[in-house]
Amino acid sequence: MLSPELERLLQRSVEDARNRRNPTLTLEHLVYVMACDMRCAEFLAACGAKVDRLVHELDYYLYELPNTGGDDLAQAPAFAAALQRAANHAQAVGHEQITPDGVLAALLVEKGAYAVAALARHRVTRLVVITQISHGAAGRAAGRALPRARLLGRWRPAPRGTSDRYEVVFHNDDFTTREFVIGLITSLFERSAEDAEALTQEIHVRGTGVVGVYPRREADRLMKHATEAARAAEFPLRLSVIPAG
């Protein structure tokens, strides 16, 4: 189901294409109206885009498209594919609505589209977008007061007792895969497959999960390597190091 905001943006995209007499509705029409929308423009700016310049670039590109269209408007394959991809993701993570931010993340997978190239020139990539979706201002605020996910089974954090003990905390998001998190916990944090499965479930259900307690230097090292591995795989996984206790 489309969110009301996305429905409005799609309708504006159609109107823009018709006003320009373009025969095909493209990703460029959608990104253009997103950049002209106050809420979406703020999101794009948070992702690093210079929105005024982006609007100008897309407007010029759309001006150069054929103006031989009429009332019948075809839909570009990339446009339809991006909407379908966003719908599939929303269904997979249990979201009831497809949002503009989700569609933006989905369309950035498309290759060869001018809109994707324009966003890339502004350093707005899929990884940047999904990181902003997952850990934007709200996520940073939540990180200052982390809920403590604890397993009720046999796994326990390492013993505490000195001031130089720090917890490495995983934060849940809707894009990093379960398989990646389990693999990271087993390989980098040297947990058993059983512990990794249980920890990953706790992170998913509670929003955060403590995967271990270490001296500060070791905790920072593990967080750094885990974050690098996630970015290399283009996942927005976020970790925190906080004092134990």
Q: What is the CATH C level class of the largest domain, in words?
A: Mainly Alpha
Give the helices and strands as they follow along the chain: HEHHHEHHHHHEHHEHE
Any guess at the CATH architecture of the largest domain?
Answer: Orthogonal Bundle
Q: Give the averaged pLDDT, no decimals.
A: 88
Identify low-pLDDT runs: 138-155
Strand content: 5-15%
Our measurement of the CA-to-CA distance between the termini, rounded to an integer number of angstroms, reads: 44 Å
User: What is the number of beta strands?
Assistant: 5
Radius of gyration: 21 Å
Find the CATH superfamily of the largest domain.
Clp, N-terminal domain
Structural class estimated from helices and strands = mainly alpha
The CATH topology assignment of the largest domain is Double Clp-N motif
Q: Helical amount among residues, as a percent range? A: 55-70%
Domains counted in the coordinates: how many? Answer: 2
What does this protein structure show overall?
The protein is mainly alpha-helical. The protein folds into two domains: 4-135, Clp, N-terminal domain (Double Clp-N motif), CATH 1.10.1780.10; 141-243, Ribosomal Protein L30, Chain: A, CATH 3.30.1390.10. It has twelve helices and five strands. The chain has helices at 4-19, 27-36, 38-46, 51-63, 77-92, 100-107, 114-121, 126-135, 137-142, 178-187, 193-206, 216-232; strands at 24-25, 74-75, 166-171, 208-214, 238-243. The strands form two sheets. It has a three-stranded antiparallel β-sheet. Strands 1-2 form a two-stranded parallel sheet. Helix 1 (4-19) packs across helix 2 (27-36). The longest helix is centred in the C-terminal third of the chain and has 17 residues, at 216-232. The radius of gyration is 21 Å and the shape is elongated.
